[in-house]
């Protein structure tokens, strides 16, 4: 037993933890949980906890159902909302087969495999998400959701519901070791944003899954409802998860070159070129729901066209320039991903696209200097700004032909994801009118 496992066992005893929740996600990014008693924890570390993998979306087929959840002791944290006495803690798990092999269909393992490929090239992948979500008053059957306020971007609302909510939510997150950079009210009524600090991509993905749970728990405690739906209100901005990206070689930011334009190295430019070249292929993963495309094609600074720009929030890939002289802060921002994505799979395909750009020496096209939404269709075409997929069906069609996504996700995840998203689109079409399809998605 290693020192981290010993620490967890000691902490469970000293803090009177009665339940240890073992967390993992299915292919769609839905959090799964199994609770064990403290007496079973040492055995869980040694042998894992057996479960029926065929009952979890996308993990395995019914005739090969037995799987093991192996807790990662480095992810141990006490759950603050369960109280100080006889509390609960959580650990994320890696999913294995009975023979000890890592399950190829486990989203956390998919990300680990992609991070290993980056490591083979000498890179560590860091991410920093800006997570947007809506706060609603208690939902009432048959009525539209009601935002908790009518405030806007950066508005300060003394004693406002959202202000107090963010205070409690951030305290909860930090008690779990999740560092928050800053928070504020976003542009939509009842819309909020909380930004997590930079961390390696695996830690960030675990933190995002914890973040969603913590936000919903705090909302329920305050009699509210929190939604990570990409576009919950037709006439208000959607909720994205703009994510800042960088590669490090040891302690050096591989994206930084003080002598280059915007301070971005050749590695950074090739990484950006990879993101742009493969953006349509990965969109079904970074934007996995029908509702995601109402955000992407709903205006309000949502990116709809494949282009990049310096300090240009209408571009798909943006170069933030808040601290141009700080080399360690050199990064790029990918703006398509939304708050409902599976972060393990989304980070995997984003990293794979960037790494391919580096490996094959992709050339970065000219940047966008104008508001891309304000340009005419002819102007965008002349400048080479191709549109992102306009619907989930289109995104799945593009993804289906992508060798990069198939190789990154692995056969089982790739096939299940395609099948599930086709079913989601088919179900959606059967429930809406032709007017809605044409008006909101541009398709019939």
UniProtKB/TrEMBL annotation:
Query: Which Gene Ontology BP annotations are present?
Result: glutamine biosynthetic process
The highest taxon in the source lineage is Bacteria
Q: What InterPro entries does this protein map onto?
A: Gln_synt_N (IPR008147), Gln_synt_N_sf (IPR036651), Gln_synth/guanido_kin_cat_dom (IPR014746), Gln_synth_cat_dom (IPR008146), Gln_synth_gly_rich_site (IPR027303)
SUPFAM superfamilies the record matches: Glutamine synthetase, N-terminal domain, Glutamine synthetase/guanido kinase
Could you read off the lineage of the organism from its UniProt record? Bacteria, Bacillati, Actinomycetota, Actinomycetes, Micrococcales
Q: Might you give the EC number(s) for this enzyme?
A: 6.3.1.2
Question: Residues in domain GS catalytic?
Answer: 107-444
- Tell me which UniProt keywords the record has, alphabetically: ATP-binding, Ligase, Magnesium, Metal-binding, Nucleotide-binding
- What is the protein name for this chain? Glutamine synthetase
Q: Give the UniProt family note.
A: Belongs to the glutamine synthetase family.
Required cofactor(s): Mg(2+)
Which top EC class applies here?
ligase
Question: Which Gene Ontology molecular function entries are recorded, alphabetically?
Answer: ATP binding; glutamine synthetase activity; metal ion binding
GS beta-grasp domain: which residues?
Answer: 15-100
